[in-house]
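Researcher: Sequence recovery benchmark, item below. Answer with residues only.
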């Protein structure tokens, strides 16, 4: 039987009895160091700043329990657990379940029904049981994080309904619950390896499900968005000190010292303008790391105990003063113990990447040489107390079959070193049609284990297959004497003119072969002043043979390939007149295969040839060919090339002064 609510109800308020459990930031390490946002380095205490989650190794799992030492009869309370996962090197997620983070308030009251006083204590509960977070590392210095915290406010009120049971009138509890989700956002900035700055905006957004009845509005906790700024620094190795300030007119100071044996000693102070005394709480703690485990403990105690032993002011005064369920006027002195386990990658990190420098873009034409010539370097720091042998690997997906590893480099304890990067690309790199940017993965390992100590992404500029850096030494990579099109053409020409090739002295056979090949193609070729309107585009010989045209670089590369395909050595003459870089030019030399003592058998005029060592070290006769006039035949090209070489290399002293270079094509 239910009595109507219009019955005369008398409510007698007495003193409130309370219980308070846990902290939203329940990690003993965080509590002992003042809950510094800048001090978050893994899943422990991540609600102080979720951006610090990026410091996790791989998998983090932590559990905690506590006991309120200032209250008798209350044993250990399960605070909750935290779980975090780092993935793709730049991302991390975490979840925290804390059933122990709550404030339970009993409001003693009686209701008079038909002259009978009936106990009808109202129970009020505030809890913050769940938090989820995501972090992203934008660079070595910057990381960002967001999190959502769930808060519940529950009123259990037996004063609304009554029923008769066994001839007695008893209250029927009625429960009202409001659930809110609060969104926070954090930033972490590490300008140097010894300083970290963080900012956390709390309660920036709130989404509410359900609402308490209007008559219980006084029991709703205030929603005060706030901003916390924190800084942590390591003035000496193994010591971290920091402080934090909030727009809620509160702050904290903390330190962590790890003298030896993976043992840490911690301490922190809490201050608030709304508390008395101003520095109202202190914490001391310790931590110990062994293998995959971190064992942490801390003791938090308060200067003013008046509201922490069971008797508190009226509920309206309490609610207005609660800014944080975990740290407020009801929080008792308590001891917290927690264990964190690192799962997945558990070995100690010995090396850290400080930065990566790429020397320039990757030119597909020269991809084979990159296995022997550095394309960049990675700056590595030894963060251990023992010497290490660090190796670096470089990898670009699709264009490399597997990461290319360097030779090990010795790095002293706490020392630094630059490790050159090399790369073995596959044939796919020669199919790149135009310039593109890809991510290259750089990893550093200081042990024989397969997993890396540190890893980072760097931008890699991959040029198109026809791109050229303008250096004559790189132009030789476009020479393809083994190309089927090149071989077919040179062999066909020599076969077609075999009678003229075989006639004459044997020592001039290479000279005659070169003459035949040049003349055979000369009538089918057109010189074009840079068809791509850019000096850094070079056609491969097969393309020039197909198009039957090209600029001076294209012609030079094509004829170098044709001659090399029949065993004739070639070289580029690179001319860059001083003060006139726009007049830079390249033409060809080929080895006539005639020893210097028989040079007159090639030409009676010594200005028409060059005496230089071949690849066997023997001095032989080399013939200059100006490929831009090659369409007029071998003799015209030879005359023009000889004149240019004489004017630039000898009269102008270009070779002696360095503005004329000869690059052998082997």
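Model:
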């Amino acid at each position: 039987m239910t009595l109507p609510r219009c019955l005369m109800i008398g409510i007698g308020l007495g003193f409130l009895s309370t219980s308070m459990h846990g902290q939203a930031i329940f990690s003993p390490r965080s509590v002992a160091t003042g809950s510094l946002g800048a001090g978050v380095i893994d899943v422990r205490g991540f609600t102080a700043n979720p951006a610090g989650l990026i410091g996790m190794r791989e998998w983090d799992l932590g559990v905690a329990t506590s006991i309120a030492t200032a209250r008798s009869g209350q044993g250990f309370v399960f605070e909750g657990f935290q779980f975090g996962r780092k993935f793709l090197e730049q991302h991390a997620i975490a979840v925290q379940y804390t059933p122990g983070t709550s404030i339970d308030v009993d409001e003693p009251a009686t209701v008079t029904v038909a002259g009978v006083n009936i106990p009808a204590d109202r129970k009020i509960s505030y809890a913050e049981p769940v938090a989820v977070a995501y972090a992203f590392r934008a660079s070595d210095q910057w990381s960002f994080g967001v999190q959502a915290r769930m808060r519940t406010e529950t009123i259990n009120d037996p004063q609304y309904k009554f029923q008769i049971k066994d001839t007695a009138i008893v209250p029927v509890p009625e429960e009202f619950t409001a659930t809110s989700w609060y969104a926070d956002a954090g930033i972490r900035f590490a300008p140097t390896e010894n300083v970290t700055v963080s900012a956390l905006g709390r309660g920036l957004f709130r989404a509410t499900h359900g609402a308490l009845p209007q008559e219980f509005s006084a029991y709703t906790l205030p929603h005060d968005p706030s901003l916390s700024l924190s800084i942590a620094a390591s003035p000496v190795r193994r010591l971290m000190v920091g402080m934090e300030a909030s727009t809620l007119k509160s702050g904290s100071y903390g330190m962590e010292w790890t003298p030896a044996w993976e043992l840490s000693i911690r301490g922190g102070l809490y201050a608030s303008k709304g508390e008395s005394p101003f520095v109202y709480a202190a914490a001391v703690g310790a931590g110990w790391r062994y293998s995959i485990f971190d064992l942490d403990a801390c003791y938090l105690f308060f200067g003013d105990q008046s509201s922490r032993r069971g008797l508190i002011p009226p509920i309206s005064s309490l609610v207005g003063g609660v800014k944080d369920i975990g740290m407020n006027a009801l929080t008792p002195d308590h001891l917290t113990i927690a264990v964190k386990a690192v799962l997945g990658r558990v070995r100690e990190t010995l090396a850290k990447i400080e930065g990566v420098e790429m020397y320039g873009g990757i030119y597909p034409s020269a991809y084979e040489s990159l296995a022997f010539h550095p394309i960049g370097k990675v700056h590595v720091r030894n963060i251990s107390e023992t010497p290490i042998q660090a190796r670096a690997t470089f990898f670009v997906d699709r264009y490399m079959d597997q990461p290319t590893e360097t030779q090990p480099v010795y790095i002293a304890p706490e020392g630094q070193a630059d490790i050159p990067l090399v790369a073995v690309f596959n044939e796919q790199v020669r199919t790149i049609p135009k310039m593109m940017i890809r991510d290259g993965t750089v990893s550093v390992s200081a042990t024989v284990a397969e997993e890396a100590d540190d890893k980072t992404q760097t931008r890699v500029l991959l040029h198109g297959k026809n791109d050229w850096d303008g250096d004559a030494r790189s132009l030789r990579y476009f020479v393809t004497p083994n190309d089927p099109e090149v071989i077919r053409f040179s062999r066909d020409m020599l076969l077609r003119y075999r009678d003229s090739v075989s006639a004459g002295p044997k020592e001039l056979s290479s000279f005659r072969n070169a003459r035949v090949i040049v003349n055979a193609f000369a009538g089918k070729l057109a010189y074009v002043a840079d068809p791509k309107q850019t000096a850094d585009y070079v056609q491969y010989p097969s393309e020039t043979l197909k198009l039957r045209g090209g600029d001076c670089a294209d012609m030079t590369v094509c004829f170098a390939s044709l001659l090399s395909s029949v065993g004739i050595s070639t070289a580029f003459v690179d001319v860059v007149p001083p003060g006139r870089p726009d007049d830079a030019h390249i033409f060809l030399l080929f080895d006539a295969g005639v020893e210097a003592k028989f040079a007159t058998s090639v030409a009676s005029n010594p200005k028409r040839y060059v005496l230089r060592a071949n690849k066997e070290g023997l001095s032989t006769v080399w013939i200059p060919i100006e490929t831009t006039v090659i369409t007029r035949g071998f003799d015209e090209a030879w005359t023009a090339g000889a004149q240019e070489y004489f004017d630039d290399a000898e009269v102008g002293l270009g070779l002696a002064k360095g503005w004329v270079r000869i690059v052998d094509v082997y």
